[in-house]
TrEMBL record:
This is Thiazole synthase. It is found in: Cytoplasm. Its main location: cytoplasm. Catalyzes the rearrangement of 1-deoxy-D-xylulose 5-phosphate (DXP) to produce the thiazole phosphate moiety of thiamine. Sulfur is provided by the thiocarboxylate moiety of the carrier protein ThiS. In vitro, sulfur can be provided by H(2)S. It comes from the Bacteria. One of its GO terms (cellular component) is cytoplasm. Its EC number is 2.8.1.10. The active site is at K96 (schiff-base intermediate with dxp). Keywords: Cytoplasm, Schiff base, Thiamine biosynthesis, Transferase. The gene is thiG. Pfam families: ThiG. The lineage of its organism: Bacteria, Pseudomonadati, Pseudomonadota, Alphaproteobacteria, Hyphomicrobiales. It is an enzyme of class 2 (transferase). Belongs to the ThiG family.
């Protein structure tokens, strides 16, 4: 079973809660996904002028673990302040840490990310850092005290799927014992299955479900894909080869004269 900061989590699919057409569709999608964890953007919900109380109530009623995030934060100070507010509001020391460094790609500011992670871990937070596939940065995050890493597979909201599978494969190989959750850029269930087949422990996604024609049906499709990818990984998939490998033995072949 997936274990994150000492807690067992039943599902390997984590779901974002932004951009759904309505709160009821969000609730349907979360239920259909079977997700045990949903991530919530404190900044987005507060700034969006939504009836905050109602939104938080809906999330609580879903009965899933809440992973607050610092989405939309572009500086260490902003991210750290948002994390502190989230801890007060949700009564959890879990935080998905995003420090955005680039406006167009929403690429993480990995320098700010490491700095913010250090500050928050000293304050007792359990940090889930949204990072790139950079192995050195990942090492620094672990040194800072992160026990989970969340590499992207493509820019947030792009739905492109794993654009650099070789880098993800290296990332998995470099950190065999660390829970690794692929976060952002997944567009289709097949993308989720493919990263799970590489041995990642879980995926987090939002846009592909929230913006689907039928979010609940798509959430369910992603859940099945995550499960299939995990089973395939555990079953030991074949490595691709350049050359053909005959499936029929050559010995015993009929010889015609
Ligand atoms: C919801 C969240 O926390 C983000 O990391 C992001 O929105 C996920 O990426 P996608 O929207 O591309 O799935």
């Amino acid at each position: 079973m997936l274990s994150l900061y000492g807690e067992d989590i039943a599902s390997r699919l984590l779901l974002g809660t932004a951009q759904y057409p309505s709160p009821s569709i969000l609730a349907e999608a979360v239920r259909a996904s079977g997700a045990g964890i949903v991530t919530v953007s404190l900044r987005r919900e507060t700034a969006g002028g939504r009836t905050g109380g109602q939104f938080w109530e809906l999330i609580r009623e879903l009965g899933v673990r809440i992973l607050p995030n610092t989405a939309g934060c572009h500086s260490v100070k902003e991210a750290v302040t948002t994390a502190r507010m989230a801890r007060d509001l949700f009564g959890t020391d879990w935080i998905k840490l995003e420090v955005i460094g680039h406006h167009d790609t929403l690429q993480p500011d990995v320098f700010g990310l490491v700095e913010a992670a250090r500050i928050l871990i000293e304050e007792g937070f359990k940090v889930f850092p949204y990072t790139t596939e950079d192995l050195v940065v990942a090492g620094r995050l672990l040194e800072a005290g992160c026990e989970v890493l969340m590499p992207w597979c493509a820019p947030i909201g792009s739905a492109r799927g794993p654009v650099n599978p070789d880098a993800l494969r290296s990332f998995r190989a470099e950190f065999p014992d660390i829970p690794l959750i692929v976060d952002a850029g997944l567009g289709r269930p097949s993308h989720a299955a493919s990263v799970m087949e590489l041995g990642f422990d879980a995926v987090l996604l939002n846009t592909a479900v929230a913006k689907a024609g039928d979010p609940a049906a798509m959430a369910s499709a992603f859940a099945q894909a995550v499960e299939a990818g995990r089973r395939a990984f555990k079953a030991g998939p074949l490595e691709p080869r350049d050359m053909a490998v005959p499936s029929t033995p050559v010995i015993g072949k009929a010889v015609f004269e």
